[in-house]
Amino acid sequence: MKMVESSEEEDDFPSMESVTPQSKIDTIYQSKTEKGIRKICFELLDLKDAVENLCSNTLTKYSAFLRLSDEVVEMKHELNELRKHISSQGILVQDLMGGVCRELEEWSQISGDIQEVQDSLQACEINDMVSTEVEGRRMQFLDHIDVLLAEHKIEEAIEAIDAEERSYPELKSSGEASAVDASFKSALLKSKTLLENQLVEISQQPLVGILELKMVLSGLLKLGKGPLAHQIFLKSYGSRLQRSIEDFLALCPCYPETYSATLSNLVFSMISLTTKESGLMFGDNPVYNNKIVQWAEWEIESLVRLVKENAPPSETASALRAASVCVQASLNHCSTLESQGLKLSKLLLVLLQPYVEEVLELNFRRARRVVLDLVGSDESISLSPRFASPLSTFATSSDTMLVDCGMRFIFVVKEIVEQLTHLVILHFGGNILMRIAQLFNKYVDFLIKALAGPSEDDNLTELKEPVPYKAETDSQQLALLGTAFTIAEELLPMVISRIWNVLNESKEAGIAVADNILPAGHNSLDPKDWRRQLQHSLDKLRDHFCRQYVLSFIYSRDGETRLGGQIYLDGKGEDLIRNSDPLPSLPFQALFGKLQQLAAVAGDILLGREKIQKVLLARLTETVVMWLSDEQEFWGVLEHDSAPLRPVGLQQLILDMHFTVEIARYAGYPSRHLHKIASDIIARAIKAFSTRGIDPQSALPEDEWFVETAKGAINRLLMGASGSDISEIDDEHIIMEDEVISDSDDSPSSLSSVDTDESFASAQMEELDSPVYTDSES
């Protein structure tokens, strides 16, 4: 329906009663709007009245507050009036005392001493005046101090008291004083106590600033409370340090290797700052200096404890790095603090030594696991070609497991050395080198287990434990030996050269390491002694190889000896001298072939390491004659009363000894030790044959004959099957080779005809001295 918009339209449609006129609508809504406005106006008026009432009440209360303030002021005035009244009462007392003086004057006049009484009276009057004036001034002073304390004007109160005590030094004295002076001193002491308490309260606020702290300390010093001021001073700086440490500790896991240096910087920087501020504020007082030292020592103990608590696991390289960095940073700070009169290096090293040694011990235990646990270890290693190349040359001749073991050894030692800082090496270098030598000895023991043959040596520790690898062939065993020698003589010196450089530099510079506070061996070690330890381990490995090698040569699989005394009782013919081409006995011919074969293999495996080849072959030759010298069963046969000894047997034995010596000399590894043992064997054999009626002078030719015969035998054996006699020897020797040479895949079936220069190591050596082979090493 269309809306009607005017009155005229309403007339045109009178029949539509449901339509409401616009005028009526306007009237209705206009009346409602006016009512709303009026209601709001009434509410605003009510609110205005409430605000006016509130303002009126506020003014009334403020007026009451002003009246109360005026009353307080009046009370202060009344209090001052009361004090004045007390002062007047004091004057009255003085007057009474003056009356007493006058009575004394009258009494003195009666007694005839009038002049003295007059003088006394005059003095009393003067004293009364002075006392009254001093008393009044002191009362005003105490009132002034009380007002300053009430208004918390601490600095002004301290200055006033300090000025008063400077003006009247007797106030600080502890001697006896008059009743008035004692009362004033007591009141002054009470005021000073109140000041002291207020200063202490300020210092105990959690967020006290540097300026406020200096104000407190200065005030306490002026009040004569120096020890208390210094105690608050140390406590405040200790709290600041503790807050800095707490803020940093949350970040320690993010910096596992350098967190200890940051902690050290925080602690020693605060110690340095505290020392400087103490000197500026308290002066060079021995008592306060001792307190600083004690506080610094306590903070260093806390530092060491925090380093331990927040360190990575002690067996990790990160823990070793953290400990090294801590020692380096802390000792550098200690050197700086020495210029301020603080000598803390000894204490620091005493506190850090157990922790550093614990970390070193656990790292070297981890190193043993990494090196020896080849099966269970999954730790990856990465060596530079400088270290990996010398060892990788043995991988083609030996099982890669043993080469990997050598690489692990170099890797873990290099990793440990890289974590060390200069000062850690300076103070703990000897200890670290000893541990490296012990680790190498463990590594050698592991290699010995891999070398152990059917006749294992029960004296070797842990030898009965299973090993993941056995070196069985000549090439494998030589590669094993070459790996150990390469590590000890080439790679390990390169790895630890940094340690030796630091120790040598300090020794040349004459640096005293912490006044020798650490036990001997921590920071000093003779390089010769250390190399001697490595050499002892190498000798142990080499001697074990030689012993196993010689035993496999001398004894058959059935346990029967091939080199027994019986071979010198069954000699064919009457005399070797009459033989046109005498040769050594078959076992020594086999020994010659064995050494020749081993030298050929060593020339390939140990290429470029002629010294190792010579040492090894010389020791093998010595081991044979040493076994012969000590074998009681061998000598039991020869020295038995029923043994059918013949001159040819003695000649054969002496020829065998000369043959052995000439082998070593001809191959380029002569040894005085070998020559001595061979001479002892010959002397014993001559004695044994002499006791049976054989005359050595008539039975034996000159020594030159044996030497020339031995050399000729070597030449003929090297020539191979060039004659019928040699062929017969080869036929017999072939039978022995089937039994003796069984541990190499490349074993020849007959004596080699390779030229001497190709079959033995070609390095030039005049003479090689070999250590005595003892039972403890075997």
Automatic annotation (TrEMBL):
One GO biological process term: exocytosis
Region (Disordered), start-end ranges: 739-778
Domain of life from the UniProt record: Eukaryota
InterPro entries: Cullin_repeat-like_dom_sf (IPR016159), Exo84 (IPR033961), Exo84_C (IPR032403), Exo84_C_1 (IPR042561), Exo84_C_2 (IPR042560)
Domain Exocyst component Exo84 C-terminal residues, every copy: 141-344
Any one of the GO CC terms: exocyst
This protein's UniProt keywords: Exocytosis, Transport
The keyword NAD is annotated on this UniProt entry: no
PANTHER family for the chain: EXOCYST COMPLEX COMPONENT 8, EXOCYST COMPLEX COMPONENT EXO84C
Family per record: Belongs to the EXO84 family.
Name of this protein: Exocyst component Exo84 C-terminal domain-containing protein
